[in-house]
UniProtKB/TrEMBL annotation, chain A:
Domain DUF4395: 7-136
Keywords: Membrane, Transmembrane, Transmembrane helix
The protein's name in its UniProt record: DUF4395 domain-containing protein
A Pfam family assignment: DUF4395
Segments passing through the bilayer: 12-32, 38-56, 77-99, 111-134
InterPro entries assigned: DUF4395 (IPR025508)
From TrEMBL, chain B:
InterPro entries the UniProt entry points to: Thioredoxin-like_sf, Thioredoxin_domain
Pfam families, alphabetized: Thioredoxin (PF00085)
Native species: Umezawaea endophytica
Source species, domain of life: Bacteria
Name of the protein: Thioredoxin family protein
Keyword Ubl conjugation: no
Ranges annotated as spanning the membrane: 6-23
Amino acid sequence: MVVDAPVDPRGPRFIASATAAVLVVALLTGWWPVLAAQALIFAASGFVSLGLNPWGRLYRLLVAPRLAPTAEREDAAPLRFAQGVGFAFALVGTVGYATGLTAVGVVATSFALVAALLNAAFNFCLGCEMYLLLRRFAPATVRQ
Amino acid sequence: MTGVWALLAVVVVVGAIGLLLRAREGRIRTAKPTGPALPGPVAALLHPAAPVTLVQLSTTFCTPCRQTRVLLADLAGRTGGLHHVDLDVTDLPEVAADLGVMRTPTTLALTSAGVEILRIGGVPKRDTLLAALRGYLPEEHPPATNG
């Protein structure tokens, strides 16, 4: 695991918008490879390094140079956690679509899309703020 | 086409959550008179000399926590009788559960005796928070600012 340096806060929002677009395509086509690709992106940025996220790279390469520079920085740990949560949903969705359990695929993809859209439209990171709630429902063994 | 319907449902849900969050962000909730006893790690943070201690609950995975920390530290620095501490509950989920806190940041305003005055979910609004705490803080004019 790489410890990521703090990031320009507008980057994650750009990532969320691009992720939402991918998830919309997955939802409309129901084609599992689209969701599988997004699951891979979630896994790489959540479990390895945020720097691996292709949308983040696109932001740094094409978008950031056109925006006014900002000294504001955001901690990478919450974003990594949220990408990990996204991975869980994308994985379940991919398996659902690929095995013909379309309902599972639709529901899991919809949940991931809700989180991505909340981030893109309202700058609200569901995975980050709900960490405590997730911990509360975690198995008792984890708590001890 | 289930995908289209799911997409429509998602848009509606996101809109509803977004509006709800916007309405609740920084809103002040006054505590019930007989709240539960304070968990030990929180009680230990109370400043004995300050009439009001703001205990901010944060996690490592929380983006607005940093913004809240900066805002409250600055506010406490400028306001007499107001003390601010940040408690990382990433590995203390039972503290958050005991307090009924489900999202971070949540900030509790406590008296030196540990009585909860109010709590704020999300990033607080400076002026509304100060106004709500006025009755608990010593009468004092804020330091004059130039201009």
